[in-house]
Amino acid sequence: MSKKAIVLQTTLELITTQGINATSLSQIIKESGVANGTVYHHFKNKEEIITELYLMLTQDFGTVVMRNTDQGDYKKQFSTMWMNLFHYFVNNPLAFVFSEQIARSPEIPQSLKDRARKYFSEIELYFRNGIRDKVFKSYNTMVMEELFFGNVVSIVKIHENEKVTLQEKHLQQAIEISWRGFVKE
Amino acid sequence: MSKKAIVLQTTLELITTQGINATSLSQIIKESGVANGTVYHHFKNKEEIITELYLMLTQDFGTVVMRNTDQGDYKKQFSTMWMNLFHYFVNNPLAFVFSEQIARSPEIPQSLKDRARKYFSEIELYFRNGIRDKVFKSYNTMVMEELFFGNVVSIVKIHENEKVTLQEKHLQQAIEISWRGFVKE
Amino acid sequence: MSKKAIVLQTTLELITTQGINATSLSQIIKESGVANGTVYHHFKNKEEIITELYLMLTQDFGTVVMRNTDQGDYKKQFSTMWMNLFHYFVNNPLAFVFSEQIARSPEIPQSLKDRARKYFSEIELYFRNGIRDKVFKSYNTMVMEELFFGNVVSIVKIHENEKVTLQEKHLQQAIEISWRGFVKE
Amino acid sequence: MSKKAIVLQTTLELITTQGINATSLSQIIKESGVANGTVYHHFKNKEEIITELYLMLTQDFGTVVMRNTDQGDYKKQFSTMWMNLFHYFVNNPLAFVFSEQIARSPEIPQSLKDRARKYFSEIELYFRNGIRDKVFKSYNTMVMEELFFGNVVSIVKIHENEKVTLQEKHLQQAIEISWRGFVKE
DNA sequence: AATGAATGAGGCTTCATTCAT
DNA sequence: GATGAATGAAGCCTCATTCAT
Known about the structure:
The structure is a homotetramer. Helices cover 72% and strands 0% of the residues of chain A. By secondary structure, the first copy, chain A, is an all-alpha fold. In chain A, helix 1 (3-18) packs across helix 2, helix 5 (74-91) packs across helix 9 and helix 8 crosses helix 9. The first copy, chain A, binds a DNA duplex through helix 3.
């Protein structure tokens, strides 16, 4: 694992725990066991660490969601996408917290969020095609993505916080509800 | 205007513009034209400025909402409360931003939010009585307050952002929709 | 002696010994026995210390040179000015080094030098009047000032470096030579 | 052009623009597009870059000045030397600035200046012979060199700054004046 | 009530240099 | 010959806070 990767990972851990502002560079340096200058060899400044982390994770999301979605009808694909994201979040708690708390906070400037849109192009295409093929209502695609993410997030939260264990059928129900929100008819 | 009031006002302006974290004491001091020590004469530390500001504004909300609500039936009172809050927000943009962005953020600790509950006692009483008198559904009163605030906030946002000017009848509609959400049957 | 004065004095000592660039803030802090923040309470940044020092000393020069010059003819005044500066430099070795090494270096930006011109207004007036009254050749006054300063500086250097002690008559000779450079005929 | 030469050239450009102190190694590295380690492969440390640059340029001066001076009498040789240096400076503005601003500054230690004396041995010999042959007054040869350089520098400055274009006859005049300063009688 | 001098910990960043490849 | 990762000391500056007046 390269020093750069270590810094990114450490930063992810720290800011998901304490927030961006509460996380100082010296803390990142101390925690990652890397030298002062090493951080600045890889990143222009503190902000660039956050930026890179954000883009990295956002790209992850985009890629993960569309894995194995090249077959089946819209419904089947939707289900796959949903489960992809769900499992990703369940298996990567830090990415989940980051997506929930950091990615939406005002610390991430809008310009950066815009730059990251490209990683959602495939997802966007899926929804746009669905609208074109009269499968989905003609919502704004960005809104659809947000709703889709939001649904998964809600279930992940239940999965994490509730004492009751989620069963497979609960997930199927959640997917069903989510799907119904988009389809025509 | 006392020095203390100046500090509070300046702080309000700064944190609604930049957020709590981005606002330093030195900035408050510089902006308010008050001496260093004067701030510490009136406030124990930086946190106490925020605390006092929060309590002040929260008390404002509570008082404002219940103004002139001692007459009429529940519906009439509801309408008055709604309009009270609406006009307060429209006339105090900083209070609006504060209520929206700061008051809900994690920078305000839960303990402080709890302390501020007392200022909502009258509002809470209104809803509790309504439930007792079978006018309202028996929701949790905190939830009811949140919904009530949320409704007003939504309309204020429309008022602020939309190019279309809100007409009196639109407000009446909004109040009607809000009211329907609470009442039995 | 105020902390601010201590910082200025220490800075003067350090930069005349080592140059501006070789003098770090931490050194100034350590040497002056003042706290980090104290420096920044009095000065906006490192540059402002230099600026203030430069203006302070430059004002000194201007004032010192013109002391007791309100009587006598041009020649008598010239002699007084010359001796004033000579004694000032002899009694304030740091000011002398500063004037020689620092004040002319490119570390002092032209803009600052321009700002300091005002402190030489009396000296300039002396020369301008002399020209008007046909006592002096009509040189550029800035050039005249430079020459005047340069002459004194040369003698101070001899005074400092030579093994031979300067006698009163040597000074009178120097003044005489200096004076001849300016006068008509 | 070798990497080493690129580093030297870049350094020359940077320090003539900003001064030695203001020029950091990182800047040289960034600007020259050469790797970090490559610089240290060719130079022991930052100082050595300056040293090498200084010696290189100084050697240039020495060589250039004496080009085509093996024929003619002292006067003819003097004229050739003068024009050699003049054209070199005119065609190598960076070398000119370096010679003027850097080479004389205290950043170049005396020890280095002494080491570079050897490159002036031919020039020195010219003047020493001239003294021996009773052509020149018996000044100190180093002083003579300084004066010679200074004269050329002055004219180059006029050439660069003045709006009036220098004509051949002006150069001849300058050489004449310069020459007269040295010769006996 | 009000002031502003004084503090020192801690923040981010730049720097010259070393080392393994 | 060339590269770039890695280092840590040192630089400048901001911050919240305390204290004497």
